[in-house]
C-alpha cells in the first residue's frame, strides 16, 4: 500500500517531533524562539527547573530538528528551525486527505440510501 509505505517512511521523524511537542516547556521554548534567537539562559529563565533538567528539554528539541544551537563564545544561542515542521505537515495532510475521502464516501452513501428510501 502506498499510504502505509509513506507512513512508515516518515514515522521515526514524526514520532520524535510529536514527542518534542508533547511537553509544555518545549512548546514554550518554541514559542519564544518564534520571536528570534535566544541564549539558553534566557530560554531557561521562565521555567522553574534546574538548568540540567532544562537542557534535557533543549536536547529533545534539537533531536527533533525543531531547534538548532551554536556556541558564541561562552554563550549557547538557540534558533528555531521551522522547516522541521514539514514532517508533521506531511503526515497531517495525508491524514486529512484520507479522512476527507472517507467522509465524502459516507456522505455519498447516505445520499444514495436516502434516495432509495424515497423511491
Automatic annotation (TrEMBL):
Domain (HTH arsR-type) spans: 6-102
SMART domains (alphabetical) = HTH_ARSR
Recorded hits in Pfam families, A to Z, give: HTH_20
Q: Which GO terms describe its molecular function?
A: DNA-binding transcription factor activity
Its signal peptide is none
Instruction: Give the InterPro entries listed for this entry.
Output: ArsR-like_HTH, HTH_ArsR_DNA-bd_dom, WH-like_DNA-bd_sf, WH_DNA-bd_sf
This one is known as ArsR family transcriptional regulator
The organism of origin for this protein: Rhodophyticola porphyridii
